[in-house]
Each structure stands twice: as structure tokens, then as C-alpha cells.
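User: Sequence in, structure out. Go.
Assistant: Echoing your sequence, followed by the C-alpha cells.
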Amino acid sequence: MAAAIRFNQFGSPDVLTLQAVPEQSPGPGEVWLEQEAIGVNFLDVTQRKGAVPIPLPSGLGLEGAGRVAAVGADVSNVKVGDRVAYATGPIGAYASARLYPAQRLVRIPDALSFDDAAALMFKGITAQYLLKSTYPVGPGSTLLLYGVAGGLGAIMVPWAKHLGAFVIGVVSRQASVEKAKALGCDEVLVFDADSLASDVARITDGQKVDVVYDPIGRVSFQASLDSLRPRGLLVSFGASSGAPAAVELATLNAKGSLFLTRPSLAAHTASVEEYQARVQDVLAVIDSAVIQPRIWASYALADAASAHADLESGRSSGAIILKP
């Protein structure tokens, strides 16, 4: 028997329970994957709470790493025993073993541990499309990034610096400032909605920034808009403080012909070809040590509720993984 986290209603971390599930034979195009590590992401929290609705009852999780234990018909890209990882649906990564589409698996090098793969894959692909596709960051780019002390920030900051950007990091508390500087931020601000935009203007000699990466949402949205240069881009890719209020198009015009987008990982990995290309870019920057795994804590699969509580409370400072 395998084990998996399931939940029947939206709510607090306590709705997550560990249940025994039968082993299954993979069908065409599928594998049975025995997992060694599972990534925990803030999207999992929003799904558990119902802020991002999913059909119930359900499993949870979109990221894991392990070994292929069995393959179904028409599977040619992986074989039994391969070390693999993944970072997209179908949902259900919080499990000791599971069925998974073979084409969405990525073979990982021996030098990359299962724990590190589970900590890097989802966040790495997110960083890749944000920095390479949503806004093409390069030499001379100026950007404002919230949450630089968290798991995604620890990937985006060094990658953006590698691409030649000037990075202003935003943290939630003074204690995180030194960590943000150690990651490579050129300047670090402790979040204050009332002063953020003026601080950004001061740092940039009044020019403000080309792009703002904002996963916070409601409480930061106005400050993010006000931190952009004319024709700058606000990338609202999360809502940890709640969804931002609706924006009048005239507001974007009045603030300097601003651009606004709400991207998602799903839209940037819809085809197998695009997904695999982004993964290979992530693996390349891992191999060259541009980005490095920064695991803050590892929890037993049965303790998924504790992992969620720590992530949701803001106590975490880096990636969180589960171990079956």
C-alpha cells in the first residue's frame, strides 16, 4: 500500500489527512512513481483554503521526485529505475507513490538529489518563465521583487543578477534584510505600503523600475503600480494577502501607460515541448551553480499540515519539502 494526503473540505491545515491508497498499474502513457521527496508550494496552500478552487475530495501537490517503478504501454522517454522529477499537474504529489504521465517526467542527473530536485523544479520553472518570457530581463533591467527571503525569491534574485539586472528586493521584516543582501539584491526594502514607491523612486533617482514581480496581491498592489516607470510592467502572479481589487483601464493610462499581467505556470507549460524546454533551462542554471537549492525544512509526509502552517504563517525562509 501507498499513502497519500487527502482532504474533503477547504479550510485550515488540519483538513489534511494521511490515507492508505492501493498501488495501481500504469495505463498507456503512464508510470507508477515511487517518490523520495515532494515540493510544497504556496499554490498548495491557496488550493487547500479554497482561494484557488479545486474539485473535492482531492489530493494536493504538483511537484515531486523519485524513481520509476513501473511503466505502461507506449512509454519510451523513461524506464524502470530512472531518477525523475516533475513540476506540473495532475494534482496529487503529496503521496509516497502515484500514477503520473510519463511525458511530464524529467530525468534528473545523478549529481542532483531527490530533495534538491523537489525543492527547485516548480519554483525554478516559475522563475524561468517570469524572467525569460513574462518580462525578458537582461543587462540594464531594473526590477522590484517581493518575497526575496522565500523559496522562489532565493532562485529569482541570483538568476536575475546573472542576467544583468539591478534588483530591489522586498522583505516582510528587518530580520530578512541580510539574507536578501546575501542572495545578491542591490537594495533591500522592508515592506511598507505607504513608503515603498517613494523609496523605489529614491533608489532609482526618480526613474522607478521596469518590472515589478508581485506575489502578495491586495496589500501591495497599489504600491507596485506606483513603483513602475512609464510603460513598466506589473506582474501580479500570486495573492498571499488576497486578490487585488479590480483596476480601471484609465488608471493604467494615468500612471504612464502601464502594462499589467497575471501569468500562471500552467499557461507557460501547456505543451510538453514548452515544459521540457523550460525544465532544461532550469537544469542548466542549476548545473552552472547560478541557482542553488535552499531547503529551509523537511517534514514527514504525515506532517503536511505542519508544513502548511509554517509556510502560511511566514515562518519559513526557503523551500519546504515532504518526505514519504
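User: And one key feature?
Assistant: The chain has a mean pLDDT of 95.
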